[in-house]
Amino acid sequence: MRILGILAMVVVSVGNAKVYEMKVTGRGFEPSSIEVTKGESVQLLVTRTEKKTCATEIQFPDLKIKKDLPLNKVVKLDLGKVEGETVSFGCGMDMMMGGVITVK
Ligand SMILES: [Cu+2]
Description:
It is built from no helices and 10 strands. It is an all-beta fold. The chain has one domain (10-103): Sandwich (Immunoglobulin-like). Bound molecules: copper (II) ion.
């Protein structure tokens, strides 16, 4: 597993919802680490730009969310209010190339 430790920037803020951008590149999910604030609704915009990756899907097992990531298409994920301290995510096969959302 490769954790880059780069924090995502908030792209826009819509009411109580915060939108974060993420990409799937040859290095996996970038950033693989996102810090969100407790109580905010989290939206992710995920774009897979790498053809040769097993992350053609993203899943959040704890949230029971799984979505296809078509190449070069922006995929919107509504995570809602994230509970707990951390929520992990990974490819559809639940193996390598994961990441984590940390709730502060
Ligand atoms: Cu995989």
